[in-house]
Amino acid sequence: xxxxxxxxxxxxxxxxxxxxxxxxxxxxxxxxxxxxxxxxxxxxxxxxxxxxxxxxxxxxxxxxxxxxxxxxxxxxxxxxxxxxxxxxxxxxxxxxxxxxxxxxxxxxxxxxxxxxxxxxxxxxxxxxxxxxxxxxxxxxxxxxxxxxxxxxxxxxxxxxxxxxxxxxxxxxxxxxxxxxxxxxxxxxxxxxxxxxxxxxxxxxxxxxxxxxxxxxxxxxxxxxxxxxxxxxxxxxxxxxxxxxxxxxxxxxxxxxxxxxxxxxxxxxxxxxxxxxxxxxxxxxxxxxxxxxxxxxxxxxxxxxxxxxxxxxxxxxxxxxxxxxxxxxxxxxxxxxxxxxxxxxxxxxxxxxxxxxxxxxxxxxxxxxxxxxxxxxxxxxxxxxxxxxxxxxxxxxxxxx
Length: 400
Known about the structure:
Number of domains: 2
Strand content: 35-45%
Distance between the termini: 70 Å
Oligomer: single chain
């Protein structure tokens, strides 16, 4: 019993001694910090103490060897340290709707209902001005808007490229006195823009642009010396498909080597309004929908003439002036069902569980729908009809 009592006392004494030593270290740190004027100074004190201990060899404190109850020396490297701060947690990816159009319209919406305030500029001749925007596309973390025009008849046409990384602040990335720009697309690290006079531009970052003189058409492709006007370009499945006035049609895989698949010949069956949707190109030809996987071979099933097309939950939704919004769940565009007969957005996109589009004339209004059948007027109206392009894209939120 006596031995047990002595051991208990020794254990108690040792624990108390170690606890007191620990409190002493803690108290000294507190006093040192309080003599300074802020948490940064306190942190410096702590760092200085560790550095000094390393230099003076305090880890080798002399301890009388005959004192079995003396606390074991603690080296600085074994002192309790705070856990490293956790890595910053980035917010989930943000998405936005982006739309562009005449009169300098560069607008965005996080929810497809409430839109940013559009820029309003007086229209120039032909309904165009310096700040007309005809198309919008997106690459990694960047939205690109293209357009241009003229203020005075007979003067030079201006080209404009504006970019945004947050959906709020737009920056001019390019402008010159060349012809206007009509369409843009991004694929596999390359931005491609086409426009008036069949000239085109390429970029790998959306900020620095290389100007190319003209898509290399043959002499016979330009009857009467009429400049070919390229209205748009779409990208998908490794190919860019560019289309223009009077039946002009060309493809490229690298933005350099072009294949003219259809010359200018005023063909009424010209392919226009080309978009890449889901896994194929969708376009309008001879008043009907036409599709292609590679941009070269096209199939024209019995379907509506598309203004805009989206793919949602296994169905293609096609907006058409003649038949409203039609859907097809087949892969060959043969069987169609009317989703909404009285609404035909000129441009349409889908995101965040809703369809979004712009429809009407003087004023044009934004609409949205959760099922493609019942549509609600959004918060913004435009006069006259001015929105020419609409996309839904992932970009960072402002200040993120």
